[in-house]
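Example S7 (structure tokens).
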């Protein structure tokens, strides 16, 4: 099928994939100063389809030399002011144009993410909708934010101005490649910064396609650049660069801590982190329609193969309904089995790569060793004899000291805990180094308000999981990080305040 048609079936997506992976169908070079170029070293790395094990492309592997080049071009572009000093309304037009291009190419972009990291194509299409909405929202915000006039006497005029920071480096993860990119890049560009994007080496292709679309939309040279490569090479170089003013990161807590150290070793650049999670999902006995709630609880962990920072990986169920509720969760899991990521009917796809696949299986084995009761799943599987697939896995009888109940697995593994009181549920939910998200299911409004206030979490979902839109900030507390994506609050992270005191005294 042609790229202009809308794919609807497995065969349609397979045909589109065949056209994209032809000799000239993929962007594989770094994007520096408005041009696609090889890495300075000439090195490349292979990106592989985890559903088939087949190589997709050889991609430029950037390192410190490429980072230095990109930072220089970003700084020059910022100082030249073609974007940084452009009127907000005009920046808005360019970003809205970019959103239109993303809309026009959404099937191609969704397919790139599915091929690159194994997620179901329907999920990737949902990510595209989120990315497009983010660019549109941030574009519309930027010409509606006002500065301030401070209250003074007649002898002075005091202004509080909001200005762009300068050069922003965005390091994004592989689980929601383009959507996470939009959450970081859109507000940083809207605020007037120059942005250098370092996509994950596990999913670089959609970021490179975005670079081409950004150039087509009219972003000036040097304002948006993409450096594919590894965290320990080009990522580290950006974090240590004296020319980067802000570092925005989504990924593991361990890496986030390292990036903060790099910022301290260099220029005290701002660092905004969205890190790991081990999110509690609390089900009280008074919730209605256990079957519906069970389906949501299952989807909260099995969506995107469990490779989700806010995955509801700790299910806390009131003991009076626990057995009946677990049975409903197991029933829901039957309809969430992994399948071909290009099949629109597949709920789950492939695990991103061999390392993550082995990590998840290792945790499953550890759960068995620690004495948790395996209720379903636990064994690797294949689709059409290929790929890295793990089905929905549920452990019951999990206790807080078990590794599967405390550590972020980042896979389709659910740990079920029981509780007898509201006080116990809150204590168990807060007993974590993480604080990214939490959920609770109840019909008691007083309980909802009490528990919501007491949960140590950046986000609380009541009678839903992962609800929200572009108006809602996304981020955590404790070792889940300090940054906030989405909403107009994200613009605060990519801008700075300047105080101007003008004397009017004679």
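Recovered sequence:
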């Amino acid at each position: 099928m042609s790229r202009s048609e809308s794919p609807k079936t497995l065969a349609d997506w397979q045909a589109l994939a065949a056209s994209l992976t032809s000799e000239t169908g993929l962007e594989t070079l770094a994007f520096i100063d408005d041009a696609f170029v090889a890495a300075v070293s000439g090195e490349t790395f292979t990106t592989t389809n985890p559903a088939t094990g087949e190589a997709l492309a050889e991609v430029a592997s950037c390192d410190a030399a490429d980072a230095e080049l990109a930072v220089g071009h970003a700084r020059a572009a910022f100082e030249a002011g073609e974007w940084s000093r452009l009127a907000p309304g005009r920046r808005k037009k360019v970003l809205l144009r970019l959103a239109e291009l993303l809309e026009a190419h959404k099937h191609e972009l969704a397919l790139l993410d599915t091929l690159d990291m194994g997620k179901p194509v329907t999920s990737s299409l949902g990510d595209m909708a989120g990315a497009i909405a983010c660019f549109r929202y941030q574009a519309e915000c930027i010409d509606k934010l006002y500065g301030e006039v401070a209250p003074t006497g007649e002898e002075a005029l005091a202004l509080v101005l909001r200005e762009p920071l300068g050069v922003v480096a965005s390091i994004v993860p592989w689980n929601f490649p383009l959507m996470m990119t939009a959450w970081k890049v859109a507000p940083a560009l809207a605020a007037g910064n120059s942005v250098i994007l370092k996509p994950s080496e596990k999913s670089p292709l959609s970021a490179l396609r975005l670079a081409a679309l950004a150039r087509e939309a009219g972003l000036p040279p040097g304002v948006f650049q993409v450096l594919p490569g590894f965290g320990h090479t080009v990522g580290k170089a950006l974090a240590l660069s004296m020319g980067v003013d802000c570092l925005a990161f989504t990924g593991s807590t361990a890496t986030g801590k390292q990036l903060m150290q790099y910022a301290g070793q260099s220029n005290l650049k701002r660092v905004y982190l969205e890190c790991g999670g081990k999110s509690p999902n609390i089900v009280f006995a008074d919730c209605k329609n256990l079957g519906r709630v069970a389906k949501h609880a299952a989807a909260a962990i099995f969506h995107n193969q469990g490779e989700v920072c806010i995955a509801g990986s700790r299910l806390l169920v009131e003991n009076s309904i626990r057995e009946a509720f677990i049975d409903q969760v197991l029933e829901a899991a039957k309809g969430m089995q992994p399948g071909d990521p290009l099949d629109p009917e597949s709920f789950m796809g492939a695990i991103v790569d061999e390392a993550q696949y082995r990590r998840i299986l290792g945790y499953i084995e550890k759960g068995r060793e620690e004495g948790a009761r395996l209720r379903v799943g636990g064994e690797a599987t294949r689709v059409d004899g290929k790929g890295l697939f793990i089905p929905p896995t549920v452990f019951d009888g999990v206790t807080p000291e078990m590794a599967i109940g405390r550590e972020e697995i980042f896979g389709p593994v659910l740990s079920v805990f029981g509780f007898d009181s509201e006080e116990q549920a809150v204590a168990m939910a807060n007993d974590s180094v993480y604080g990214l998200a939490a959920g609770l299911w109840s019909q008691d409004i007083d309980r909802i308000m009490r528990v919501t206030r007491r949960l140590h979490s950046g986000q609380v979902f009541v009678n839903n999981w992962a609800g929200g839109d572009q108006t809602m900030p996304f981020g955590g507390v404790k070792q889940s990080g300090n940054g906030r994506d989405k909403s107009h609050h994200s613009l605060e992270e990519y801008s700075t305040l300047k105080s101007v005191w003008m004397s009017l005294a004679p």
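Notes on this example. The first strand starts at residue 30 and ends at 32.
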